[in-house]
Amino acid sequence: MAQAAAVAKPPAPPRRRRASATPRRLPYLLIAPAALLMLGFIAYPVLSVFYYSLQNYNPTKPWRNGYAGFDNFVHAFTQDPQFWDTLLFSAKWVVVEVGLQLLFGLALALIVNQTFVGRGLGRALVFSPWAVSGVLTSAIWVLLYNSQTGITRYLADMGLGSYGTSWLSDTSTVFPAAVVADLWRGVPFFAILILADLQSVSRDLYEAAEVDGAGRLQQFWHITLPHLKDAIVLSTLLRAVWEFNNVDLLYTLTGGGPAGETTTLPLYIANTSVDAHNFGYASALTTVAFVILLFCSIVYLRLSKFGGEK
Fold it and tell me: Which secondary structure element, helix H or strand E, spans residue 67, and what is its range?
């Protein structure tokens, strides 16, 4: 017993000091102010739109304000033919613009990806329209389409057309004229994204294809396009959302006219809220547009298998 008592107990293992939680939380604490500001500037307006979509809210007619339930949505789908007209035109505008911008942007990216003298200057000229703001772009094309000093005046001097012709006031020419104006600014967006992805394609793939006897078209179809798949899907999705919400260019060029021929749904929403002061109905239309864009985006990403194997 005495010998057992005399045996010294082994020393207790030293306690590990708990790592301070502050260093791990520091990055989140640093970005917290910016995150809260973004949440306030984004979440609050979105929630406000959802709230007012269920209200009758017109500051010029306060006696009619109050809870409306789903009356605004019912009115849009059953009693407002202009809603359907603007929605169909928005779909037409998006399909035509995004399709043409992708086609020309891909062609420009393939051209400026080649090695030639003055390639840097060529790339700068190709990408420069994207640096111009939407309002300034509209102002440039308003001057170009001016019937007295614009393109039609010079065409008339050459015997093509008549003096005083305005493409923006003719229902047969206003849509192509607006499309060309937006193409000038939208094509560089696709060219920039596609060129960035083109430069990551290994030259070894093309050299191996040439050894196997593949031509330029076969190389483009089996090497270039599969590699560009994700870039094309992402760029077309982003541009489709932007084109659907396009207001500044069409508002400055045509104001939605003539006779409502170029009125998109967002432009109709802007006119309903700003001009007619019917913020409740405009909020309901905005909610419908949000749901349409969300649904189409999800379906498009699923069908395109974005992020999958190339």
Answer: strand 66-67
